[in-house]
UniProtKB/TrEMBL annotation:
PANTHER family, alphabetized: GLYCEROPHOSPHODIESTER PHOSPHODIESTERASE, CYTOPLASMIC, GLYCEROPHOSPHORYL DIESTER PHOSPHODIESTERASE
Biological process terms in GO annotation: lipid metabolic process
UniProt name for this protein: Glycerophosphoryl diester phosphodiesterase
Organism: Paenibacillus pasadenensis
Protein keywords: Hydrolase
Classification via PROSITE patterns: GP_PDE, PIPLC_X_DOMAIN
Domain GP-PDE: 13-263
Sections of the chain in a coiled coil: none
Matches recorded under Pfam families: GDPD
Domain of life: Bacteria
This enzyme's EC code(s): 3.1.4.46
């Protein structure tokens, strides 16, 4: 028999589909985003880069080889070149024909329909990325209403959250769009020192922690700085239960459907 779901509270953590429902469809494509929607995720997480001709597009790696039939550095290609590539065949024949999405097309299809967790990918390599992402969000009216308070049901309402490993990049985005909630991605325990967290909390509403950092003590510390906590990338039952029990407000996972069986929903 399936193990009983772990109960957590007072709120079920948000379920954020990492690069879409990427366990079951090619990451960062419309196939993965549609599946995330069908699997009941609260947010789609996606990675945004800038093409040579200044168009924001959705792809994780710096290079094209792993997830497309192209070669070389993705951001050195024009949007037209990127769109001519196949981004699904590597995952399975059924997905051949999937394309690299334009960021604006994602906003047009999903803005307001499901939450979007937008990662500014390698912003140090892509000058102008923040400006292009902000312009697209503004064009689609996804400007955020206010800087939402962490920790209560209210913060669930943000239609778009922008996140990055780079605090300077988030700062630049925040200057262009002061009302969009921001998230800082953290992978090492040293980054969770009190003083550093307080500095981040001036800019970010969320800290997105690598799963090894999902410990009650550390989560409490981040909450103490005023930020909500997401945890990435949780793909096993044990990890999901641990992150939820540690007090995570949201869990980034490749398999949003599995997550529902692991963690009991609380109203
Ligand atoms: O949400 C955090 C996670 O997406 C960061 O890692 O490499 O999957 O972009 P990566
Ligand atoms: Ca990402």
């Amino acid at each position: 028999a399936a193990a009983k779901p772990a109960a957590v509270g007072p709120f079920r953590p948000l379920v954020l589909a990492h690069r879409g429902a990427s366990a079951d469809a090619p990451e960062n494509t419309f196939a993965a985003f549609e599946l995330a929607l069908r699997q009941g995720a609260d947010y789609i997480e996606l990675d945004v880069q800038l093409s040579r001709d200044g168009v924001p597009f959705v792809l994780h790696d710096e290079k094209l080889e792993r997830t497309t039939d192209g070669r070389g550095i993705a951001s050195r290609r024009t949007m037209r070149e990127l769109e001519s590539l196949d981004a699904g065949g590597w995952f399975g024949e059924a997905y051949r024909g999937e394309r690299i999405p334009r960021f604006e097309e994602v906003l047009r299809r999903y803005g307001g329909k499901i939450g979007l967790l937008v990662e500014l990918k390698d912003p140090q390599l892509q000058p102008g990325l923040e400006r292009a992402v902000a312009a697209a969000l503004i064009r689609f009216g996804l400007t955020g209403e206010q800087r939402l308070e962490a920790g209560g049901p209210g913060w669930r309402r943000a239609p778009v959250i922008v996140q990055s490993f780079s605090l300077p990049s988030l700062k630049r985005l925040g200057e262009l769009m002061p009302s969009v909630p921001l998230g800082v991605i953290l992978s090492r325990e040293e980054e969770l020192e009190q003083s550093r967290l307080h500095e981040m909390a001036d800019i970010a509403t969320y800290a997105n922690l690598r799963k090894q950092l999902a410990q009650p003590k550390l989560v409490r510390r981040v909450h103490g700085s005023g930020m909500a906590v997401f945890v990435w990338t949780v793909d096993r039952r044990r990890e999901a239960v641990q992150a939820a029990a540690a007090g995570a407000d949201g869990i980034v996972t490749d398999g949003p459907d599995r997550f529902r069986d692991w963690i009991k929903k609380t109203p």
